[in-house]
Amino acid sequence: AQAILAQAFAILNVVFWLVGAVALLDMAGEGHNGLGECASVMSCGQTVGPVPFPSLYIGSIVNDPQERVARLPDRIKSSIPSEEPRPGPRGCVYRVLEPYYTKDSVDDVEEAMMSGQISSGASWPRQLASQICSLYGVPVALPTSSGASALTVALLACHLTSQDHVLVPAFTMVAVANAVKMVGAKPIYCDNAAGSVNPGVHQYLEKATPCVKAVIVCHTYGIACKEIVELAEVCAERCWWLIEDICESMGTKAENGQLVGTFGDFGVASLYANKPITAGDGGWVHARDAKHHDHLKSLLNHGFDPAYHFLHFETAPNAKMNGLGAAFACSQVKLLPQIMKHRAQLAVWYREFLAGLSGLTCLEAMTHDAPWVFGVEVADRTTRDRLRDHLALHGVETRNYFYPLHLEPVNFYSGDAGVYDIVLPHAERCAQVGCYLPSHSFLQRDDIMYICSVVRSFFETHRQVPELRRALGWANVERTKLLTA
Fold it and tell me: Which residues form a coiled coil (predicted)?
């Protein structure tokens, strides 16, 4: 009897699921917007989508990516990035970025493991913090689990409320907007300045509201905001917090020669594997005023109070970096000047070998020109996609420029579709016509010459593509040399 009853329940579940699937198809056919269902499903922590019977929801079957895209407004559907190019027969020989570290990093991790110094409470995070303080000339630096968690902690330290607005670049990584939303504030998206990948003072002030309490500057792609000095003055005059997101610009210098990350109240950085120095994952938050130390330390550790171990006075995340990650990164801090010098040399080579090429514009040049990645822009999206396909065919990986935050599908699915009425022409154009080329510490002059020759052969069809001398995995070979030196 129990077996028969169990079988009956199983059949009933299948019937309910089929009814739900049919209802879903009916709604799709009728153009039902499903926002109510989306909100209810999101509140349950499930994948976004119109789900009549959430308990029977199977995301991989009912709510596939194509269906989610099909529901978006036409403005978004027409601008979303194309599919990534497929590598040619020799594979992706030149990756856009490669992690760079030496045997010292491996030795330090081994020492941490042998001594049991592997947690966030170990000596290695404190040692890393000390090195960051020395590098940036700040009194406070705390390693974190990621660049995103560092930004979240910095925003929490600004005491923002649901009524507060934060001015953010539209042309940056989605983690910036996510962090603002996660602390309960509202991001206000700002356009790029003409010819730049960053907003200027005018673009920030143009979007300012009476509710603005903080400003985030990102120094996108390692290009310093040209007006960071003036922007810092504006923020001070208006009592706005200034947070510098240097996740893509550690070691980058502003036009006056000062390191970016030293103009704002807080600086936040990422130590992800594609950054100049890395912990695999991780990051840090630093502050120019020592008074922030205790609060930041509490905010990245569940709101612990040093006087009462299990008594908490505020809600806070766990954003600490573990000892192994800190040990891995410590020895790399001293390498940053050398790494940035090499980035500057890459920019010189790219600009030299692409000079005079009709139909292509290089990333804006700075006084201290050492971008994290080297970007190029072409006439239109079709040309950009064809250029990327051409480079992939010849073993060169590329990445599209950022998709603007105000157009991200998450706004539609989280009930904030009103931001789609905003037009930010410079950020939107960059997203359609820009991509960046390989930029990492293993690349040499001949490598950049080859990459640029492939680019030129796309625009100058009479030009022959040179022989690809590198083999798949060559950067791993070079990395092994560093680890066995």
Answer: none
Cβ–Cβ under 8 Å, residues 364 and 195: yes
Q: How many CB atoms lie within 10 A of CB 42?
A: 15
Class of domain 103-333: alpha beta
DSSP calls for 144-174? ES-HHHHHHHHHHHTT--TT-EEEEESSS-H
Beta-carbon contacts of 160 under 8 Å, excluding residues fewer than 6 positions away, are: 166, 183, 184, 185, 213, 214
Strands 361-362 and 374-377: antiparallel
Asked whether residue 125 carries a pLDDT value surpassing 90, the answer given is yes
What are the sequence ranges of the domains in the chain? 82-96+336-468, 103-333
Percent of the chain with pLDDT over 70: 86
C-beta neighbour count of 206 within 10 angstroms? 12
Q: What is the 3-state secondary structure (H, E, C) of 197-260?
A: CCCCHHHHHHCCCCCEEEEEECCHHHCCCCCHHHHHHHHHHHCCEEEEECCCCCCCECCCCCEC
Q: How many Cα atoms sit within 13 Å of 449 on the Cβ side?
A: 8
Q: What is the mean pLDDT of the chain?
A: 88
Nearest-CA neighbor of 346 among 370, 327, 366, 329? Answer: 370
Q: CATH homologous superfamily for 82-96+336-468?
A: Aspartate Aminotransferase, domain 1 (3.90.1150.10)
Q: Which residues pair with 400 in a beta bridge?
A: 435
- The predicted model gives 321-350 an average pLDDT of 98
Q: What is the pTM of this model?
A: 0.87
Amino acid sitting at position 48: V
Distance of alpha carbon 423 from the chain centroid: 22
| Cα gap 151→185, rounded to integer Å | 13
Q: CB count, 10 Å around CB of 463? A: 13
The tens digit of pLDDT for each residue in 250-294 reads 999 999 999 999 999 999 999 999 999 999 999 999 999 999 999
